[in-house]
Amino acid sequence: MDNLSLHIPVLLNEVVEAINPQDGKTYVDGTFGAGGYSKEVLNKANCKLIAIDRDPNVKKSVDAMGKAFGERFEFVAGRFGDMKSCLSSIGQNKVDGIMLDIGVSSMQIDEAERGFSFRFDGPLDMRMSASGETAADIVNNMPEKDLADLIYKYGEEKNSRRIAKAIVARRAEKPFETTKELKEIIHSVSKKPVNGIDSATRTFQALRIAVNDELGELERALSASQELLNDGGILAVVTFHSLEDRIVKNFFKDKCGLGPRPSRYLPAAIEETPLFEGKNKAVTAKEEEIKLNPRARSAKLRYAIRKYGVREAGALNHGEV
Ligand SMILES: C[S@@+](CC[C@H](N)C(=O)[O-])C[C@H]1O[C@@H](n2cnc3c(N)ncnc32)[C@H](O)[C@@H]1O
Prior knowledge:
It contains 14 helices and seven strands. The model is unreliable at 314-321 (pLDDT under 50). It has two domains: 12-106 and 214-315, Vaccinia Virus protein VP39 (Rossmann fold); 130-211, Putative methyltransferase TM0872, insert domain (DNA polymerase, domain 1, Orthogonal Bundle). Helices cover 42% and strands 13% of the residues. The protein has a seven-stranded mixed β-sheet with strand order 3-2-1-4-5-7-6, with helices on both faces. 41% of the residues are buried. It is an alpha/beta fold. Bound molecules: S-adenosylmethionine (SAM). Residues 7, 9, 31, 33-37, 52-55, 58, 79-81, 101, 103, 105, 128, 217 line the site of S-adenosylmethionine.
């Protein structure tokens, strides 16, 4: 663990600027990792920071933060998709900002034992938390058609049918155990890198998303944020690929009232009141950051401010709609 490269936070200044930490307020870092965002927020204001992570290996960084910031820092082990219950387990029902930095950390990728990367040989695992179905369980048991669909949907891999077929033929002889075995089978049917990207990349991404239910987690967290944020609270989300960004973009488009307007024949009272305010424009990393940290190249930050509308001000409560 000590040899692992420490995670360099991506779009750190931009995220903290968006969150705009204030004294006396409470913020959530739903993807604690090595604590880069959490630390910066706590340094910016005399505020409280509640961190969540599903990976038991973050303990060392959690302990260091506890020592540095005392009671201003609190950690809850869990998934950000369950943010509401994570927060209520420590008596917190409302917060003033939520940050999410979706995906895997450098520590997770660089640890061969975790099985996230085909750059190292390791068990075909890919679980961020230490429990549940592994990537090996999926490739060894899923019916061929479902496997092809999964690789196509989550990996956006055009060769998905051919790869799934090769996986199923290979597992009939011997079940997959390692990242190297899987990489070799993918290379056997689609060897050439596409645009400089290794042909195993998309399949590995698809399996990782499925193992950790990454898109479902994101959708649940976005939805929960509406209820958890105080009026004026900020939701800031950093994503690393188009599947995630599409979910965040559509969420903000809808919730900021930037989508197509409902029919003008609908009574005004039943038009949806926007729940967030923001331009829904993606913030990307500057060249200097990308030079220092190539991982930042694909990062996109979107953020918006929670606004309490007419409905929440009481219209619904009084049965007037
Ligand atoms: C990209 S890293 C975050 C790095 C962090 N911003 C920093 O500055 O160190 C993502 C972290 O989020 C965690 N994570 C990913 N999905 C999660 C989920 N659904 N619930 C809780 N933690 C999650 C991972 O375990 C990982 O530690």
